[in-house]
Structures are given as structure tokens and as C-alpha cells.
Design brief:
55% of the residues lie in helices and 12% in strands. It is α/β, with parallel strands linked by helices. The protein has 2 domains: 33-83 and 171-331, no CATH class; 88-167, no CATH class. Strands 1, 2, 3, 4, 5 and 6 form a 6-stranded mixed sheet that branches. A hairpin with a 6-residue loop joins strand 3 (185-195) and strand 4 (202-207). The longest helix is centred in the C-terminal third of the chain and has 23 residues, at 254-276.
Length: 341
């Protein structure tokens, strides 16, 4: 992403900060194809035994939400599979993303209230959208509350992000999938915003609240799927908080991809065990792992699934400290945007 000086002078400080942190640095070097293919081989080898136990007619779909819950606590993960319900608080993010999508392609002056109203109407009328029926049945007061929250968030986005030029290849709500073992295992993502072409792509996750440690792991999963799907790793990951106008960014390196692979393998072991016992609610792995400090779980998992031990040991040997980072995301060092830096 290269910016012309006239555009830079027209930006407010928040927009300039975003532009600076997302722009390509002169010394940036893309990850080699050989590194990406090596991680692909590790991923397939590490999941081969698990894939053999899956029914092709009942494929396993893995998303960031499932990974976040299973990394936190396997019992909570199983409960969360059926406990989710829409609320005014959690649907506002969906309305925001729709509004951003509309605003990006809007012809003429962008008025946040008008964009949000159209987004609400489109979502409510879309029977295929999971949030549609919920929005449709809201009472007038609830819809007014949702509208107010969505206008606030979209206004913050409009004020803090620079105008997204077509040359930057911006894509909203970008879905990606990596299919493995005859579609027995599917890694699925849906990025809020991507910028750039494959091999130098920036993946941005928009947050309506504060940034949490788990958000970086979610973006690392996005990076792994992008690398496996295209054969080229993205360049940078950014989690942006609209409420604080700050971002945490991370350059995608071989160590980042290796760490995400190792943690993904742990999640598959936990997830597979939970699903195997779901029928009778005997979550043995959850019983043993939930409550164990995250940085110690690998030792338990390595003793539960011997085949995975070999693959994970290879990753540990290769990444060293990166593996400890993937086990303890709260210890990671963030790179926040500083105002007027």
C-alpha cells in the first residue's frame, strides 16, 4: 500500500495512525513458498489420524469461535455449541460490518445514520442471515437502541480509518476456507477487512470493545488459513478497537505460523475428544484440562494423543519460544498505535 502525499495531508491523526501501521515497510520480505509448504506438510501429518476417524458425510468445520472456546475450556466449548443466542449487544457488530460494507461502495456523501438504517433493513429482510429474524422481531425501543449503538460504531470507523482506495483491494466480510482430507476437515474464516493482494495481504479485525489476548490468536488462525489456501502468507495482522482508536498489529513470520499450527493441533485433540464423548456428556479431556493453567496444558495433551506428540515436538523444536507464546497469549507483546507517533 503506497500513499500519495496529498492524501496524507487530508487525514486526521487517527486516520494517519492507521495508514502508517498498515502500510508496507521498505524492508519487508515475504515468507518463502518453501516455508509455507513445510507448514502445510506438518499440518496434514499432524491431523491425519484425526481425519481417519471422521465421517466424510459429517465434516468437521473449524472457525475462530470454536477455537477460542476450546482453547479456553473444553466443557465451556461444548456448552457453547447450543447456548448461543442473539442479543442487542452482540448483534450490533453484525450491523456495523454490514454498514461498513455498504459505506465502502456508497456513491455520494456518507451519512452514518442513513447507512446504518439501510444495513438494518437489509439484514432484517434477509431470511438467510442468522441475525435477520432476530432484528425483525425487535420491539421499537430495542431497535432504536440497536440503531443508536450501530451509528456510534460506524461513525467511529468512518472517523478513524482513511478512505479505502480501490487500488488497495479492500474487501469486507471476506470468507476463506481450507479443505483437508477430502473435506473431512475444513478450516473456515471470515475476515472483517482485508487489504492488498495474496502474498502481501493485511487482515484487519474490527472490535467494538477493548482488545483481548484471544483476538491475536484469532487473527493468527486467519493467517494460517490464508497461507494454506493461497500458498502465500499474509503480511500483517491488525486488531483495531473502535472505542479506543488503537490497534495491535503483528507481522506474519514463520514463527507466527508455526505457533498457530501447534496450537491448532492442540485444539483438534481437545475438540475431537469432546465430540467423541458428547453423546453421554463424559468430557474426560475437559475434566482433566479445564482448570489447568494454559501454559501447562501441552504436557497433558502430549500424553493423551501419542501420534500428535511427534508432530508437536517437531514444531516445538523448530519454534522454541514461539511455542510458549502460542500457549500463553496473555504474555505476548503487543504493538499498539500511539497517537501522533
Amino acid at each position: 500500500m503506497t500513499m500519495q502525499q496529498p492524501l496524507r495531508r487530508s487525514l486526521n491523526p487517527m486516520q494517519q495512525d492507521v495508514l502508517d501501521v498498515l502500510s508496507k515497510q521498505p524492508d519487508w520480505t515475504p515468507i518463502s513458498r518453501e516455508v509455507v509448504e513445510g507448514i502445510r506438510t506438518q499440518l496434514h501429518n499432524g491431523l491425519a489420524d484425526i481425519a481417519e476417524k471422521l465421517d466424510p458425510q459429517r465434516a468437521l468445520w473449524v472457525s475462530k469461535h470454536k477455537l477460542t472456546t476450546v482453547h479456553g475450556c473444553e466443557a465451556h466449548h461444548m456448552a457453547g455449541l447450543t447456548d448461543f443466542a442473539w442479543s442487542v449487544n452482540n448483534v450490533k457488530g453484525t450491523v456495523l460490518h454490514k454498514a461498513v460494507e455498504l459505506g465502502l461502495n456508497w456513491q455520494g456523501a456518507v451519512i452514518p445514520a442513513d447507512i446504518v438504517d439501510i444495513a438494518l433493513n437489509q439484514l432484517a429482510d434477509d431470511d438467510m442471515a442468522s441475525a435477520g429474524p432476530f432484528i425483525e422481531q425487535l420491539s421499537p425501543s430495542e431497535r432504536a437502541q440497536l440503531r443508536s449503538s450501530a451509528i456510534d460504531l460506524y461513525t467511529k470507523f468512518d472517523e478513524s480509518f482513511p478512505p479505502l482506495k480501490a487500488a488497495w483491494r479492500p474487501v469486507l466480510e471476506s470468507s476463506a476456507r481450507y479443505e483437508m482430507f477430502g473435506q473431512r476437515i475444513n478450516l473456515s474464516t471470515r475476515a472483517d477487512l482485508t487489504l492488498g493482494a495474496p502474498g502481501s495481504k493485511v487482515i484487519v479485525d474490527l472490535k467494538s470493545g477493548r482488545i483481548q489476548a484471544s483476538h491475536r490468536e484469532e487473527l493468527r488462525f486467519y493467517a494460517l488459513v490464508e497461507a494454506m489456501r493461497t500458498g502465500q502468507a499474509p503480511r500483517r495482522l491488525a486488531t483495531y478497537s473502535l472505542v479506543t482508536a488503537r490497534a495491535e498489529v503483528e507481522d506474519v513470520t514463520e514463527g507466527v505460523l508455526q505457533a498457530r499450527y501447534a496450537k491448532l493441533l492442540m485444539a483438534f485433540i481437545s475438540y475431537s475428544n469432546c465430540n467423541a464423548n458428547a453423546a453421554n456428556q463424559q468430557h474426560d479431556l475437559a475434566h482433566h484440562v479445564c482448570g489447568v493453567p494454559l501454559q501447562h496444558r501441552a504436557l497433558l495433551v502430549l500424553n493423551i494423543w501419542p501420534t500428535a506428540t511427534i508432530q508437536m515436538q517437531r514444531s516445538i523444536t523448530k519454534t522454541h519460544s514461539n511455542f510458549s507464546l502460542c500457549l500463553a497469549p496473555s504474555m505476548q507483546v503487543a504493538r499498539p498505535i500511539q497517537p501522533n507517533s
